[in-house]
């Protein structure tokens, strides 16, 4: 008789879940004393990396990461208050990097720029003084071009090394000779650039008068730019070169008379500058646009406008190897004038 088989059921192990709570992993990490600091950092990082729901539901082609309002629904007062506080918080935050865009200046704080022709003697003298200062400032740029050019710097370094090899046994003699050499180098740069001072002093009222052999008696036009009608911040000297027209129907040589007229003439910019503290604000661009407008009005819509071959701001007194920075300035000025002419033509076509 077979013995009945007894099946022993294994005891089921029950887990006590009373100690489990729906805490986050950060809370459980915080339970360890040594990791509390790391948990605080993770909490801070989590709070700053959460994307607002509005960004996830945006239908714009480019996602936005700031709160945005919709015109199709009226926001709840509490959400509006939170949005206002959020925007105020961000407006008080400083830029994150030096390359960040500076805060916008309110339109009421931007002074109005006025362009006008300088007619009185005092106004013309003020404009010429501004141009003279700009020419004198070119000496500083020329001096930097020579001082930091690789060729003269290499010569100076070689001379100093030679002095060191010859007088290294006598420190006092080495110091004296090196000082004399450096001073001589600076004096040579000063001598090469001193002509800019003479050019600056030559810009006076007589500079605006027509040439003695010219039959056209009109003086050059001086344009000025002011902020709120106060201090002059920009000046431009425009010479309207007349065209020669022949009167009389006879074609025989000497039977026709010639006279000068602005109709069909050209506009020549003889000087163009902006005050040093106001450069980069678009003042020069506005002056060029005004010069183009005056030329087109008085000489005809087909009149050409350009810089004089040797205008006040283009004189180069240094050898050619040092004039790279001045050539770049000339190229930028020519492009700015071309842009002003193109803008005037585009405006006329739209009309």
UniProtKB/TrEMBL annotation:
Alphabetical list of InterPro entries matching this protein:
Acyl_CoA_acyltransferase (IPR016181), GNAT_dom (IPR000182)
Q: Which residues form the N-acetyltransferase domain?
A: 217-301
What keywords is this UniProt entry annotated with? Membrane, Transmembrane, Transmembrane helix
Question: Could you tell me where the Low complexity compositional bias lies?
Answer: 61-84
Task: Spell out the Pfam families in the cross-references.
Answer: Acetyltransf_1 (PF00583)
Chain intervals for the UniProt region annotation (Disordered): 58-101
Q: Keyword Membrane: yes or no? A: yes
- Record GO terms (molecular function): acyltransferase activity, transferring groups other than amino-acyl groups
Q: Which residues form a coiled coil?
A: none
TM segment ranges: 146-164, 176-193
Q: What is this protein called?
A: N-acetyltransferase domain-containing protein
Can you name the source organism?
Sarocladium strictum
């Amino acid at each position: 008789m077979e013995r009945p088989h007894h099946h022993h059921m294994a005891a089921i192990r029950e887990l006590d879940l009373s100690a489990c709570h729906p805490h986050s992993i950060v809370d459980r990490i915080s339970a360890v004393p040594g990791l509390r600091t790391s948990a605080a950092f993770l909490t801070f990082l989590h709070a700053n990396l959460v994307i607002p729901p509005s960004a996830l539901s945006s239908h714009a082609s480019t996602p936005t990461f700031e709160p945005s309002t919709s015109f199709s629904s009226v926001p709840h007062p509490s959400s509006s208050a939170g949005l206002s506080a959020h925007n105020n918080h961000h407006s008080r935050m400083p830029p994150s990097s030096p390359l960040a865009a500076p805060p916008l200046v309110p339109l009421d704080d931007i002074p109005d720029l006025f362009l006008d022709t300088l007619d009185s003697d005092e106004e013309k003298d003020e404009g010429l003084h501004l141009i003279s200062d700009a020419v004198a400032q070119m000496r500083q740029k020329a001096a930097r071009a020579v001082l930091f050019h690789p060729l003269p710097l290499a010569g100076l370094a070689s001379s100093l090394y030679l002095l060191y090899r010859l007088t290294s046994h006598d420190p006092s003699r080495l110091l004296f000779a090196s000082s004399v050499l450096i001073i001589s180098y600076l004096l040579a740069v000063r001598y090469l650039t001193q002509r800019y001072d003479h050019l600056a002093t030559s810009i006076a009222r007589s500079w605006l008068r027509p040439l003695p052999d010219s039959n056209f008696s009109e003086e050059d036009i001086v344009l000025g730019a002011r902020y709120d009608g106060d201090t002059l911040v920009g000046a431009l000297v425009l010479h309207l070169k007349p065209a020669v027209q022949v009167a009389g129907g006879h074609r025989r040589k000497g039977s026709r008379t010639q006279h000068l007229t602005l109709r069909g003439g050209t506009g020549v910019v003889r000087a163009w500058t902006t005050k040093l503290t106001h450069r980069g604000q678009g003042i020069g661009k506005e002056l060029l646009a005004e010069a183009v407008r005056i030329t087109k009005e008085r000489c005809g819509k087909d009149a050409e406008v350009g810089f004089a071959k040797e205008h006040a701001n283009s004189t180069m007194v240094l050898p050619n190897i040092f004039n790279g920075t001045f050539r770049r300035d000339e190229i930028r000025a020519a492009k700015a004038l071309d842009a002003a002419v193109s803008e005037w033509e585009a405006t006329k076509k739209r009309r």
